[in-house]
Design goal:
Layout: H1 20-32, E1 36-40, E2 44-50, E3 64-68, E4 71-77, H2 79-100, H3 106-119, E5 131-139, E6 142-148, E7 154-156, E8 159-162, H4 166-175, H5 177-180, H6 185-198, E9 211-218, E10 226-232, H7 238-246, H8 254-258
Length: 267
């Protein structure tokens, strides 16, 4: 894994044109972060995260953070780096309200976030942020979902999963991609939880302790009002988990889930 001559800092290219410090940061997202899933429809954007604790005596790590009424993030990787970036986003959001009297546009704050991360790859003595983010929000054009990577690259997504064991969640999202656009709020949450279940090992299941859901979107009463970012955590997520068990998005496995059985997932 170590490249010796070219991985001592984030400003030196290898002869193959690679920056190994950036690649190491991306590995931190893949290996250190538990999976988070994001989905977007015409009316809502949903973040679903699997929390984990360092040991039995510790609390579960916070994985979804509200930035503003119209914006929230889910993290995979180093939580300390995510906290720094979340504080930066909160500062930019507050500055927009104080200066212009309106919420900061999503593309602007995502661009500022990417610029901040990319700057760390141009200055000696700094390192890339070892965290990946999914950014969900709403603006005048509707709900959006963006992915942020340690290299500073940002891109808008229809659905996305990052973190450890995220490949199986991505497979689920690809399989159901055509359904997301017209999903209701509850249906989108069920798909998110379904994708999260796919990433679990056989001996684990989703519980109110290890699962978080964040929802942002537009009211469907014709007035196009923004629903404030809502985080479901702890006991609040119980009804959502029960609903996902009653109605599975995978067809043949629905009866087993309705009976309360744990879904088996390949490791």
């Amino acid at each position: 894994m170590f490249r010796n001559n070219y991985d001592n800092d984030a400003v030196t290219f290898s002869p193959q044109g690679r920056i190994f410090q950036v690649e190491y940061a991306q590995e931190a997202v893949k290996m250190q972060g538990s999976v988070v899933v994001g989905l977007v429809s015409k009316t809502h954007s949903v973040l679903v995260a699997l929390k984990r604790n360092a040991e039995e005596l510790s609390s579960y790590q916070k994985k979804i953070i509200g930035i503003d009424e119209h914006l929230g993030i889910a993290l995979a990787g180093l939580a300390s780096d995510a906290r720094v970036l979340a504080n930066f986003m909160k500062q930019q959001s507050l500055a927009s309200k104080m200066t212009y009297g309106r919420p900061i546009p999503l593309e602007r704050i995502v661009g500022q976030l990417g610029d901040r991360a990319q700057t760390n790859t141009q200055h000696y003595g700094k390192r890339p942020y070892g965290v990946g983010l999914l950014i969900a929000g709403v603006d005048d054009t509707g709900p959006h979902l963006f992915e942020f990577s340690p290299s500073g690259m940002t891109q808008e997504m229809l659905a996305c999963a990052i973190g450890a064991r995220s490949q199986m969640a991505r497979t689920y999202l690809e399989r159901h991609l055509t359904e997301f656009e017209n999903c209701s709020r509850d249906e989108l949450i069920k798909h998110g939880l379904g994708a999260l279940k796919e990433s679990l090992s056989q001996e684990k299941e989703l519980t109110i302790e290890n699962t978080s859901v964040g929802v942002i979107g537009l009211n469907t009463d014709g007035k196009r009002r923004v629903e404030k970012f809502k985080l479901y955590d702890g006991a609040e997520i119980g009804p959502l988990l029960e609903a996902s068990l009653e109605t599975s998005g995978d067809g043949p496995e629905a009866p087993a889930e309705a009976a309360g059985e744990t879904m088996d997932v390949d490791t």
